[in-house]
């Protein structure tokens, strides 16, 4: 795992280019604390900070292919690098290292952009063609690794400057760059809980969408998609027993591939079904005792430590946990926001920030987790809700009430006393109001409330509606498949894999790997979903596939969503940064925020007992507070990450400077004054 950054800008003074590049890397050095390096050419610079996981001694970057034409800065892991290396060798490619980075580079030299669909991994990378001058960026098909870019246009419409980085904070080191919040993008993010696939909360900054690549050529940008989301596949044609074996074997192969590493691999164990399955497979496939890690909460309503201990004991793992309370969340909230780089609607990412620090302190660099299982195997109650609402007019009242009762048996407000009210609510949403967004309309009501924090009161769903309307094949998907598409494209990459996942892990130099987000696993799930059951029970086939490996309590318990204390934490703890939303002066400084509505919301939260704060109010408050912290850190330039070390501590191990070469540069020129040092 690594972090990458760079720019294309002929206007940057040649003498200051190394300093700019080193400063950009220093701001993301938490992603790769082991070594750093950069590449320089006329008007072009790119670099990386490395977390050494595979081929620890020979995987230094930037790395060139044997002709010295192509240079790569690679962030991530290519899980099928062994298989691809064998194929490339059969085609005559010679390798100098065991690193997966060289496999990516040689695959690019062999196949060009056609290599991308062959990759099974979590990655974002930049490749520079030293002959053509092109710069090529790519991101994995599920958006596991981030890649942001910013291009400024001249009056002729051609890009004068182009920046890219694994994290947006690196742009702060580029001369003249300034962060500005974009109220329109904030409204959209508040409404659907996360920025859209190619957006960010800031003006002039975009992110490369999942499964996409971008070519920077002669001042123009060419964005293309190389991998579509595969959820509409041919149904599995075998028996239920065969489907169970198919799912188990596909997942086993995925975990086995993600255990490839030259360092120890641990597992996040939440106590739920998905992480328990990953843990079971890891213990089966590992040659050593598996270490598992989890969060315990002081508040019983959020704590799953009992289930975690049962699974750890049953599977014989060496288990370690950290206890997190409200004071911990309040103390680390600004640092976690700094690494998330986007507003958040929950505080659940803060305990994950603390957990990754605990894992790093334990000497673990790589962790397996269960993200993606609910999206692939229809684990969320959202999918059961969608099935119920889609069938609403074909059901009797008794059937409706019975199915409402089965949606959330763990939640008191879904109990018998409230079912008549819930029946009325579902009745209202049994007909689609937002074209293409039927499955999420109930959820989006909370987002509609949060969007009122913005001065401009346009349609916060306009961009989301435009995205689905312009997506080929989306209209033909079933209601449940549309729900999957929305989850895969929004909340999964925009929050679960990033704010709550990758960004929190890499804040402390820990790489997360997600076996459920293997293309073969996602396709397998799509082929068996609703094929052998009606969707009323959570992940039936997964439970059957691992019934003999897990404790019965893990199979019988209903899904408990991972949650953490919300607005009440800040009201109770009164951290100093709470002044950012308590002060009218501070509220008025935040771009696009309506200080009147914001002030009323904050006053309501402060005056209401914790149990009386509604979900929509809680989410809107956390959105507001995280936006205020983000504004102070990025727009105001007052970074609050207490874990950040001085820039001077960055040590650059590899420098490649092609600017020192005399005369023309034919294909196959040497590395100039660079090379590892």
Report on the structure:
The protein has 677 residues and is of the alpha/beta class. Helix 5 (240-258) crosses helix 6, helix 5 (240-258) packs antiparallel against helix 18 and helix 24 crosses helix 25 (615-635). The radius of gyration is 25 Å and the shape is globular. The two termini are 21 Å apart.
Offer a few descriptive terms.
7-stranded mixed beta sheet, 677 residues, single chain, disordered C terminus, 6-stranded antiparallel beta sheet, 25 helices, 18 strands, alpha/beta
Helix content: 25-40%
For the residues shown, what is the average pLDDT? Answer: 91
Largest beta-sheet characterization: 7 strands, mixed
Q: How far apart are the first and last residues' alpha carbons, in Å?
A: 21 Å
Spans where pLDDT lies below 50 across 5 or more residues: 644-648, 666-677
User: How large a portion of the residues is in β-strands, by DSSP E?
Assistant: 5-15%
Secondary structure layout:
Layout: E1 2-8, H1 17-26, E2 35-41, E3 44-50, E4 63-64, E5 70-78, H2 81-90, H3 100-111, E6 121-129, E7 135-139, E8 148-153, E9 159-165, H4 183-192, E10 206-207, E11 212-217, E12 220-225, H5 240-258, E13 265-268, H6 273-285, E14 291-297, H7 305-315, E15 318-324, H8 326-340, H9 349-361, E16 366-368, H10 373-376, H11 381-390, H12 397-405, H13 419-428, H14 441-450, H15 462-469, H16 479-496, H17 498-506, E17 511-513, H18 519-528, H19 540-545, H20 552-556, H21 567-573, H22 579-582, H23 584-589, H24 595-607, H25 615-635, E18 654-657
Parallel strand pairs: 2-18, 13-14, 13-16, 14-15, 16-17
Antiparallel strand pairs: 1-3, 1-9, 2-3, 4-5, 5-6, 6-7, 7-11, 8-9, 8-10, 11-12
Helix pairs in contact: 2-3, 4-14, 5-6, 5-18, 8-9, 8-17, 8-21, 8-25, 9-17, 11-16, 12-13, 14-25, 16-17, 24-25
């Amino acid at each position: 795992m690594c972090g990458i950054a760079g720019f294309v800008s002929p206007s940057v003074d040649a003498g200051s280019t190394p300093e700019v590049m080193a400063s950009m890397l220093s701001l993301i050095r938490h992603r790769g604390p082991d070594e750093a390096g950069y590449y320089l050419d006329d008007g072009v610079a790119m670099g990386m900070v490395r977390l050494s996981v595979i081929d620890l001694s020979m995987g230094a970057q930037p790395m060139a292919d044997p002709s010295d034409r192509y240079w790569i800065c690679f962030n991530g892991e290519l899980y099928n690098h062994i298989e691809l290396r064998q194929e490339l060798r059969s085609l005559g490619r010679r390798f100098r290292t065991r690193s997966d980075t060289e496999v990516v580079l040689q695959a690019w030299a062999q196949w060009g952009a056609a290599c991308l669909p062959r990759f099974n991994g979590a990655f974002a990378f930049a490749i520079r063609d030293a002959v053509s001058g092109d710069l090529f960026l790519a991101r994995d098909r599920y958006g596991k690794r981030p890649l942001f870019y910013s291009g400024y246009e001249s009056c002729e419409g051609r890009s004068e400057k182009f920046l890219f980085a694994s994290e947006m904070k690196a742009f702060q080191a580029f001369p003249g760059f300034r962060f500005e919040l974009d109220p329109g993008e904030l409204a959209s993010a508040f409404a659907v809980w996360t920025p859209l696939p190619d957006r960010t909360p800031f003006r002039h900054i975009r992110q490369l969408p999942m499964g996409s690549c971008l070519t920077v050529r002669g001042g123009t940008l060419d964005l293309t998609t190389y991998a579509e989301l595969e959820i509409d596949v041919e149904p599995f044609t075998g028996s239920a027993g065969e489907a169970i074996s198919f799912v188990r074997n596909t997942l086993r192969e995925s975990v086995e591939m993600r255990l490839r590493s030259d360092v120890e691999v641990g597992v996040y164990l939440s106590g739920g079904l998905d992480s328990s399955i990953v843990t079971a497979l890891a213990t089966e496939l590992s040659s050593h005792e598996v270490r598992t890690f989890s969060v315990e909460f002081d508040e019983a309503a959020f704590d799953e430590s009992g289930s975690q201990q049962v699974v750890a004991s049953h599977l014989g793992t060496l288990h370690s946990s950290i206890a997190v309370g409200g004071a911990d969340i309040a103390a680390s909230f600004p640092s976690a926001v700094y690494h998330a780089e986007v507003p958040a609607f929950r505080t659940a990412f803060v305990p994950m920030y603390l957990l990754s620090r605990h894992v790093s302190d334990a000497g673990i660099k790589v962790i397996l987790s269960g993200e993606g299982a609910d999206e692939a195997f229809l684990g969320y109650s959202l999918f059961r809700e969608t099935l119920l609402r889609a069938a609403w007019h074909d059901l009797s009242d008794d059937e409706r009430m019975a199915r409402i009762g089965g949606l959330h048996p763990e939640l008191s407000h879904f109990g018998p006393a409230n079912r008549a009210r819930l029946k009325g609510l579902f009745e209202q949403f049994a007909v689609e109001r937002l074209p293409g967004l039927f499955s999420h309309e109930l959820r989006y009501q909370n987002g509609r409330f949060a969007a009122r924090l913005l001065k401009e009161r346009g349609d916060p769903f306009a961009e989301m509606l435009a995205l689905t309307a312009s997506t080929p094949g989306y209209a033909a998907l079933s209601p449940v498949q549309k729900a999957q598409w929305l989850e895969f494209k929004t909340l999964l990459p925009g929050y679960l894999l990033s704010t709550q996942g990758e960004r929190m892990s890499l804040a402390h130099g820990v790489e997360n790997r997600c076996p459920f987000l293997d293309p073969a696993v996602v396709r397998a799930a799509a082929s068996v979903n609703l094929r052998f059951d009606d969707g009323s029970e959570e992940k039936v086939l997964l439970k059957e596939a691992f019934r003999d490996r897990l404790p019965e309590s893990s199979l019988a318990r209903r899904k408990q969503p991972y949650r953490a204390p919300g607005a009440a934490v800040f009201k109770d703890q009164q951290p100093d940064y709470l002044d950012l939303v308590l002060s009218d002066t501070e509220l008025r400084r935040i771009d696009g925020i309506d200080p009147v509505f914001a002030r009323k919301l904050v006053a309501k939260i402060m005056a209401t007992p914790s149990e009386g704060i509604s979900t929509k109010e809680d989410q809107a408050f956390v959105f507001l507070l995280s936006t205020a912290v983000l504004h102070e850190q990025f727009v105001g330039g007052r970074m609050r990450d207490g874990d950040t070390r001085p820039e001077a501590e960055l040590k650059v191990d590899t420098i490649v400077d092609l600017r020192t070469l005399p005369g023309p540069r034919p294909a196959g020129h040497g590395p100039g004054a660079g090379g590892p040092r």
